[in-house]
Design a protein that fits this description.
It is built from 16 helices and 19 strands. The protein is of the alpha/beta class. The strands form three sheets. A six-stranded antiparallel β-barrel has the order 11-12-17-16-15-18. The chain has a five-stranded parallel β-sheet with strand order 2-1-3-4-5, sandwiched between helices. The chain starts with 6 loop residues before the first strand and ends with a strand.
Length: 474
Amino acid sequence: MIQKKPKLGLVFFAAKWFEEVVLGGKESAREFNKFMEEDTGKIRGKLQEDFEIVNYPLVTSIEKSRKVSKDLLAQDIDCLLLIFSVWSEDEYLLYFKDIMSIRPSILWAYTPYINAPAKSDIMTLFRNSGIVGTFEGFGVLKKMGSKPFLVSGFYDEKEPYEKIRKIGCAARVLKELKTVRLGVLPYRNEQMIVTYVDEFRLYSQLGPTVDFISVLQLKKAADCLTESEIHKYVGEIKTKFKIDSRITAKNLFNSAQATLGLQKIIEDRQLDGLALSDLNKELHEVIGLRPCLYPEKLARSSRVVGNEGDLGGTTGMLILQKLTGNPVMFTEIFNFDREDNTVVAGHAGPSNYLLAQEESAITITPDYELMDARSEISGVWMEFIGKPGRVTILNLICTIDSFQFTILGGQSLGGKVRLDGYPHYYVKIDPGIDDFLVSNAENGVSHHWAIVNGDVRDELCYLADMLNIKKVNL
């Protein structure tokens, strides 16, 4: 899924003296102005590759600072980038306090060179003078109570742009979280108190609102589907996937019906994510199974489905989806191997089949956890192993007074299926197994880990800082 470019407010500062004296000269002024336009133009051009840029003329006065800062408040930017292109009066920063209090900001300690010149004539010194303004800005921003992210370097280096891109991506997700709507069906899991989340704190601190959905509402949504709709979906399942011989036509039909009902609820309520409490007794009694299939329309959307009523885990899934545009798997770690430094992580319940290493290898199996239950219909699962490649793994829990990210990377190894009946990943994690376990014991985690293909560890760290929550980066 193509991700929307973050909206970046870009502001360059220069001293009024440069505008009136240096740029008011003749040949030297033209040369200096050429350098200025070249430097700022290259920066704008490179940033436009990753951002929707809100540009402004060079800020060289209090009046311009006031005007630009006022307009930025109306532009609804995702983040702000401040650059002292040459030395500037530091008081210009004061007018950006309001926008910096509500949007993440970046200060670029910018230099127009890779290596400092051995000796500078006066024009070269002036061109390189932005770093002086930056040092002034450090003190002013500290007194203002503003904490911008800092990047540094030459305008032709890759590193500052990559860091700005990651901060911008995190800032976009920060803003998007404020409009997120999550559902819980039907309620949190009382067998797992570690997954409990304070919904008010989730709303006030992270942004998502929560909608509780009853089992009766799921039943009504499933019952209103026509037989032709259900049979059409069953036909798609049979065409795409292998079907275990133990699955009856009635079992598959009822599972498809319940799953389409779940998708209907997600769409009708315009939910970005749903935490399905799949172990809920009422769900099993009323529906006769847990909806564990995954229709293509849902799979190719930006929506996520978590399990065991875990709002924190589902929020973590949604964050990873928004950062990468990729589907995300809700997992718990079933085993680890010290020698190989690997874990096998998966989970019962619905899981996006687009995560599979090979779609043709996906098997629809009985719900192994419920197949011997008293219910006549026990439901079905999707069995597959996740795609190989770099992955990011996130644990998100509600702590005593806040939230916490635990972040790690790894290499998904793919290969043969390692769990009967479960969607799962086989991952060689970056930290050593013992270090991983000790950190989890010391800092506290839940047993639920969201896994996505791609490396967004830095973005998660920046997002944690923006949210002012604890991060444990492994």
